[in-house]
Known about the structure:
The complex is a heterodimer.
Chain A: H1 2-13, H2 19-51, H3 56-61, H4 68-77, H5 84-96, H6 110-143, H7 148-163, H8 166-180, H9 192-221, H10 225-232, H11 237-255, H12 257-275, H13 280-289, H14 293-321, H15 335-357, H16 365-370
Chain B: H1 9-12, H2 25-31, H3 42-59, H4 96-131, H5 134-149, H6 152-163, H7 167-194, H8 197-205, H9 209-245, H10 257-264, H11 273-300
Helix pairs in contact in B: 3-4, 3-11, 4-5, 4-7, 4-9, 5-7, 6-7, 7-9, 8-9, 9-10, 9-11, 10-11
Keywords (chain A): Cell membrane, Membrane, Transmembrane, Transmembrane helix, Transport
Transmembrane segments (chain A): 31-51, 124-144, 156-183, 195-214, 253-275, 295-314
Pfam families (chain A): BPD_transp_1
Amino acid sequence: MSIALVADGRRAGGLAVSSAGAVGLAVARRVGYAVLVLWGAVTVTFTALHLKSGSTVDVIIGQSPVSPEVRAQIISDYALDKPWLVQYFDYLGHLLRGDLGHSYNQGMDVTSAIGEQILPSFELMAAAIGLALIGSVTVAVLTAGRPRWIRSPFSLLEIVGVAVPAFWLAILLLTVFSFQLHWFPAIGANTARGLVLPAVALAAAPGATLAQILRNGLERTLDEPFVTTARSRGIGEAAVLVRHALRHALMPAITIAGWIAGALLGGAVVIENVFSRQGLGSLTVGALGRRDFPLISGVVLVAASFYVVVNLLIDAAYPLLDPRLRPDATISPTPVAGATDVTTTATTAAPTAPTATATATAATAAPAVSAPAGGGDPTPPRSPSTTDPNQEGRG
Amino acid sequence: MTTAPPDLAASVAGGAQPVDGTTSVPAAGARGRWSRARPTRPGVVLSFAFLALLVVAAIWPGLFTGTDPNAADIAQTLRGPGAGHLLGTDQNGRDILARIVHGTRPSLLIGLTASALALVVGAAIGVAAAQGGRLVSAFFDWLLNVILSIPGLLLALLVIAVLGPGTRNSIIGLSLILLPGFARVVRGEVLRIRASVHLEAARALGWPQRQVILRHLVPNALAPVLILATIGVGSAIGLGSTLSFLGLGPQPPTAEWGAMLASSRTYFSVAWWPAIFPGIVITLTVLTITVAGQFLQARLEGRGAR
């Protein structure tokens, strides 16, 4: 969105608008909207959890019998006697200070409970995204533009990777590599070896999706005039792929980075459960069983913030990857139209694809990314330039 | 004026597009909307065959197995695959094949219902967002962004936290995950219809607009939405099995694939078959629905069979 705004600014104000000011304004608007979305997530979560059946005091007290005094004390501690709106604004006020409330039965603040568990989860997610990136880039580079008998087995593997439920893949890996072959520890080991199987299970879906998108992007880019130019300069095929084509193929892949972030978080919840690993997943599922609503809201909000921040970073990454999207771009004769196309596609289509495809497919993800307004397939925006815009100015 | 094939590629992708109406018509028209460019790939044929098999199993499970899926037999617990029990038995001595066959109906129904619910609500939101004023449109856009900001599975868990576990509530949670995608595609389609040359031509010819919209534009707009919904069924089945596995979906003793996996987990260090076979069926189901959906999508976009 930020880039679209910049583009609009350029179109409307022309030279009158300084590009730094335009960028500043665009960034401010983008961040403002992100805050608005987060506020929405807070409100929806808070409202939803207050619509639930049953009394909150009973949930906090649980099975143990307590005296009326204790009961009254709990009600006043958690401000349960106050009207909904007051509780809501209280919650918002605390949130602004980084306070997510007090867990019903963990005996600690939600912030500390999440803080304790977030590291193992991030460790798992980082390992998974690393695997997914390395695997997908390797597969895409090795198979793009190759004959069908080379591509087909990988295509099949990718479709399976997208379709297979992560938790079942985890069970499968456990059965084969832990219980049959004894190569990896089965359950709960918080060691590097214990990280392998969960990371593989978690990496499968994003990795397979990325591989599909990257290969599509690479194959599209290989038809571009600038690739022909590069080849005519005598650059080897491998260098063409890695140095020129890959950067272009990364654009649509980055568009789904937000979805990948969400998929990893959601996937981690289940994978941790299968492997009995510590982390946000076990915390969440446990909180669900004990109906620990502040803790559930806390996890949901942390996840939403994560998603929103990742999407902000994606917006910031576009101009870095494609110089034509920078406000001071001078390369393409029609940078404005191109830039707007790409960004609107990115902001409207990207989130669409992942929801529809959460586990199923890159089928929608790939076309969603590659077919922006106008019905062509220009990602990155088509320009008649025969020089690789990424290489421009670097000799 | 008959149904000229519109350019659906971009609209499936969820974006509204500036329609000039001429760009894609020759290409798509030359090939015809459903005509065959290449022979259908065997994978696609197999996928449709498997899906047909699933539908039959969901309607008449008795055709595939005569065994009662809930008949426990303490003498036959955790028997490996072999004669008598083709896929083995579970911890209660129940026949796994029979449970998989009988589990087809609930498993498919969860996916179908979730996708249908998301389609109806998503379409309503999409139409409202497209037809409403700027404020209405901005509101729905914000709402969809809020829903999208919560990762799919956590969204379903939130719904279950509020409403409690069970089949119905999982379906509500799953449909909420699918909803934003559907709403956006419908909005794009409506915007496209509004700007379409068909409508302009009808206006110029003085034809009743309502008739043009209903008879020519809505059918064209429906196809991409229905295909998205098809793929959504696959997503919902995969995610639904995840919820069941966490014990939040259909409750025992229902024979449902995810629930079967959930009950197998205590034993899967000693017996692999209860944990493996239902998972294979889930994966194949999601896979074949995806392949079928992609095939239909490619056909619709005039890209030919993939």
